[in-house]
Write a structure and sequence with these properties.
The protein is 56% helix and 15% strand. By secondary structure, it is an alpha/beta fold. A hairpin with a 3-residue loop joins strand 1 and strand 2 (80-82).
């Protein structure tokens, strides 16, 4: 049996660890509530905004817009029409820090699954990484992490992401990419998060419907109570023209999709970290109890041994 001194050191060590993880749990709980409220409040806005495009695409011919079809090439003033080898852009949303369970590894696995499913490699892929974990993972494997954002505030606004989406749209405009996916963690509940991938470019009606369907989870506390009725097909009169409206609307909707992925990921991150820290705190308490029992047994054994030695000495003196 270990010495009393060693057992005492372990008890003190686990108590200190439990104090630290409990403090981290408290901090994560505050951030979790804040980001969950923000994510839940943003779902209605994101769903309504994307539904506008869905309804437009059902009543108008929007298939000719460049952002709504796969890129076929572009006109080079020097060489005429060119069709380059297009690349796929992946927007990876992870956290900067660990201690959040399997949150980051789930997103990375989903990204690697999408890469494998499309037979992509580092040469055919451009990365936009929001969060250090995803950026480091793919940069270390030779991927072109073109844009990297770290230490992003939980209070990031939709307008703060415009620089990223503007850069993304410029790549598409010059024919560098033809497809873009955003890969993030969707918040289902405090104890459950799910890594998802949604198509951002081209903004097809199917991709929009899939994104809208994924905004509200199918299960969990925050799932819709009942199926929403399908709205009747509306007839839209668009002024000044369909092209001008889409030119203004589509970049905003792309920005909304990226922003929605960000706030969902933040809610998922702090929820996962709070659960992980609570689990670590409970484990530390269990270890303190276990080693306290070992300490008491060792102390009792030492006392019994000393009493036995005293008794034996007294018997020998008689």
């Amino acid at each position: 049996m270990a010495s009393l001194k060693n057992i005492k050191i372990k008890i003190q060590s686990y108590r200190k660890t439990g104090t630290v993880t409990h403090a981290m749990e408290a901090v994560s709980a505050v951030k979790m509530r804040k980001t969950q409220e923000r994510a839940l409040a943003g779902r209605a806005y994101a769903a309504a905004a994307l539904s506008v495009l869905e309804h437009l695409s059902r009543s108008l011919d929007t298939s000719h817009h460049p952002l709504m079809v796969r890129n076929l090439g572009f006109v080079n003033p020097n060489f005429g029409f060119t069709k380059p080898k297009f690349r796929t852009c992946l927007i990876i949303v992870t956290s900067d820090k660990g201690l959040a369970g399997s949150l980051n590894s789930s997103v990375i696995r989903r990204a690697e699954h999408e890469i494998a499913a499309r037979n992509l490699g580092p040469e055919q892929t451009i990365m936009i990484a929001i969060g250090r974990r995803g950026a480091e993972h793919f940069a270390n494997r030779g991927y072109d992490v073109r844009i990297r954002r770290e230490n992003v505030s939980d209070d990031l606004s939709e307008s703060d992401l415009r620089t990223i989406t503007d850069e993304l749209l410029s790549w598409h405009a010059v024919g560098e990419i033809d497809t873009c996916l955003v890969i993030y963690t969707n918040f289902i509940s405090t104890f459950e998060q799910e890594a998802l991938a949604h198509q951002v470019i081209p903004v097809t009606p199917e991709a929009v419907r899939e994104t809208v369907a994924g905004i509200r989870p199918a299960r969990g506390r925050y799932a819709p109570r009942s199926e929403a009725p399908v709205p009747p097909l509306a007839i839209y009169l668009v002024e000044p023209s369909v092209d001008q409206v889409l030119a203004e609307l589509l970049p905003r909707l792309i920005n909304i999709m990226v922003f929605h992925a960000f706030i969902e990921s933040k809610a998922s991150e702090h929820s996962a970290r709070r659960v992980a820290m609570k689990s670590a705190t409970d484990k530390a308490k269990d270890m303190v109890k276990s080693y306290t029992r070992h300490f008491n047994k060792a102390r009792q054994a030492a006392i019994t041994r000393e009493v036995s030695e005293i008794t034996s000495g007294m018997e020998a003196m008689r």
